[in-house]
Write a structure and sequence with these properties.
2,3-Dihydroxybiphenyl 1,2-Dioxygenase, domain 1; alpha/beta; 123 residues; single chain
Length: 123
């Protein structure tokens, strides 16, 4: 199962302090808008998203259709097909994509310890 690019989305208290901290660890801005309280940072193949005031917990995030540089892949598994496969394996989804749709969509689930997982397709 290819879930696409992986990142950790962090719920931060002060996005500017968090940005400064992660820059000291070698992360550089890849995308986002700090004035809107979200920023994507990258160090090698490692990606973290900083999000202030947008959600309650840290989230494991997968992006079908993207590589680790947020560039479009020629071929990828659509989030709706991933949804069908996950459900066929007995997993419970918290939110589902419209299976008759196409293009951008997302699904969410939790691991056994309550960690949120977002599978977010942008195209």
């Amino acid at each position: 199962m290819n879930l696409g690019a992986f990142s950790v989305s962090l719920n931060v208290k002060d996005i500017n302090k968090s940005k400064e901290f992660y820059e000291k660890l070698g992360f550089k801005a890849l995308g986002g808008d700090i004035s809107q309280n979200w920023l994507i940072l990258k160090n090698g193949d490692h990606i973290i998203g900083l999000f202030q005031g947008m959600f309650e917990k840290n989230i494991l995030t997968f992006n079908p259709g993207w590589d680790q540089d947020a560039k479009n892949l020629d071929s990828f598994t659509d989030v709706r097909d991933l949804q069908k496969e996950l459900k066929s394996k007995g997993l419970t989804l918290l939110t589902e994509a419209d299976e008759s749709g196409e293009g951008p969509a997302h699904i969410t689930l939790q691991d056994p310890d309550g960690n949120p997982i977002l599978i977010d397709q942008h195209r």
